[in-house]
Design goal:
The chain has 302 residues and is an alpha/beta fold. The chain has twelve helices and seven strands. Helix 4 links the parallel strand 3 and strand 4.
Length: 302
């Protein structure tokens, strides 16, 4: 296993992609978001992952976002961009850009739509690792990809492919995470990608979380990790339960619809989404509003 950056732990915020009113990527807003998270205590930054609407971005836009994000971060925090697509050559190109930009690792989603076998997944990540020289995190999110990478396949990759240093686990099956860690051992960096499982994953040896909610309450998400690692399980558990309602509503309709609506209310970004996503419905807004108001997230109150 490749040596993971020692600071690659805790709350790695998966940033939304801000768009201007004409629909172009708003790079000025992206830079402001990154600076905000550095100041707010997030432990790392990710762009062009699920929350960043990668499927709606052109290849050129993804490459430029990685470049701009790396320049803005400037080594202040670990940088873990999402670089996966459903095509291996394109995934290699984006991952090479992350490597050239100085990213600490690349987050590579299980290839979607094709529904490959476990042997196909093993070959996919093995071939990617041969083509690049950067630590890699597998991204398991079966609800988006249509296929789940088995714990045994992850274990095989972690043993055979030194660059595979960890995984973002977004399976609702908590047993899956347990078996992954059993297969891969305690040095394997397992990050939660499901908000309700961020605290529980720490308890079984997880390295942290890549949680959409950190776009809204970065200090609290980071503090949950810090309290846990300081041995204050009571504080970490209290934050876990306090965050449950907010964690639930940020996934209203589909990610990142609700979180972008909330962020647009405070003026951090514009409300623009790209097709095929639609703006948050009035029913969705009513559902989100109650939880958001308790955190002071509406109309700049926070």
């Amino acid at each position: 296993m490749a040596k993971a950056p020692p600071t690659l732990r805790g709350s790695i915020v998966p940033l939304v992609t801000p768009f201007d009113p004409d629909g172009a990527v708003d790079f000025a807003a992206l830079r402001k978001l990154i600076d905000h998270h550095v100041d707010a205590g997030s432990h790392g930054i990710s762009v062009t992952g699920t929350t960043g609407e990668p499927g709606a971005l052109t290849l050129a836009e993804r490459l430029r976002m990685i470049e701009v994000a790396a320049e803005t971060i400037g080594g202040r925090l670990p940088f873990v961009p999402g670089t996966g697509t459903h095509q291996l050559p394109e995934t290699i190109e984006i991952t090479k850009k992350a490597q050239e930009a100085g990213a600490d690792a690349a987050l590579v989603i299980v290839p979607y739509y094709a529904r490959p076998t476990q042997e196909g997944l093993y070959a996919w990540y093995s071939e990617l690792a041969e083509a690049v020289d950067i630590p890699l995190l597998v991204y398991n999110i079966p609800a988006r990809t249509g296929v789940e990478i088995a714990p045994e396949t992850v274990g095989r990759l972690s043993r055979d492919v030194p660059q595979i240093i960890g995984m973002k686990e977004a399976s609702p099956d908590f047993a899956h995470a347990n078996f992954v860690l059993r297969e891969c051992g305690p040095e394997f960096l397992l990050f939660s990608g499901l908000e309700a499982l961020c605290f529980p994953l720490l308890a079984i040896g997880g390295a942290g979380f890549i949680s959409v909610t950190a776009n809204l309450v970065p200090r609290e998400i980071a503090r949950m990790y810090e309290a846990f690692t300081a041995g204050d399980w009571d504080e970490a558990r209290d934050l876990h339960y306090r965050l449950l309602d907010l964690n639930d509503v940020v996934l209203t309709e589909t990610n990142p619809t609700a979180v972008k609506w909330l962020m647009s209310r405070t003026g951090e970004i514009g409300p623009t989404l790209r097709a095929p996503l639609a703006p948050l419905s009035e029913a969705g807004q009513r559902r989100v509003r109650a939880a958001a108001e308790s955190w002071g997230l509406l109309d700049g109150a926070r």
